[in-house]
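Annotated sample (chain length 348).
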Amino acid sequence: MGIASQDALEQLSALIDQLDAKLKHTFQNMHQGNQKHTLARFLKAREWNALKANKMLVDCLNWRMQNQIDDILCKPITPANLYRGIRDSQLMGLSGYSKQARFRLVFSVPDCTWGVPVFAIGAGLTTFDKASVNYYIQSHIQMNEYRDRVVLPAASRKHGRYIGTCFKVLDMTGLKFSSLSNLKLVSLMATIDDLNYPEKTETYYIVNAPYIFSACWKVVKPLLQERTRRKVQVLDGCGKDELLKIMDYASLPHFCKRNGSRSSRYSSLDSDDCYSFDHPFHQEFYSYIVQQAKSKNNESLIKHGSLHVDVPEPDPEGIEIINTIESELHKIGNQNGVTRSLSGLKIV
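Output written by the structure step:
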């Protein structure tokens, strides 16, 4: 960390010391004993401008308080069959952890990406059609909070160093025009992540990318900050060979272990399907939330019903990106004669 970065960190730390007791309490729940690293994430998201980072962080803390995010892991989605439906239609899960790079083992170079969680996301085949928007937003935030409060601290303890980020492998299999109605919900989740969980992803690996993704990525990429562009890697095919450089075979997402591009729509037949509610990760995740609700000794927490969480307004960069994607999709639709099916599409 350079001198300017250290100065910004000290300035932001001094500003945070002025918070009232309630905001400080939710900040403690958020940073989990890693205040310095958390402040650095918000600074990085605002180009190391302490005043802008302070506003972003205070807005985040107010959002957490107003929407009771500190207690969201005490609110299981019930009944269990409803949650199973969400898992079948919001495809994501923990497939494993990264490995230590071979050259670092040989030369004894510290490896900061060893033991980092690997999350798989079925972006192309996610349908969001088994529950209300509120349930999907709740599930998404719960996954973020479980990652930050349970998965990452456990990885840090295991490896004896702070681990605060993850890798994400996004499978674009099945992405087509009929999936575009999901983009509004995806953009809501992205806004929540950008403003309240910044800099939590080490690298995004895109696999099985069809033409529609490549066309949108071509026009969106120039709009992104260089810091963000460097995080996105579009791999050939299922990306197996490249991904094996950072993780063992056992940690590969199930859709990267197949020969060819067989659709992950049939992943429920695979024993290692990390999307499934029956996968050990999701069983532990759901059991954790149920136990947290019981420990609160509040029956109202486990009653049927979704939470309503306010979604912050996206920043100007996010709005421009969404508008650009929308424009490109309509352009592709015109070229392929599907203008009629796209005429009602409005992402935001």
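Annotation: The mean pLDDT is 87.
Annotation: The domain at 3-66 is CATH 1.10.8 (Helicase, Ruva Protein; domain 3).
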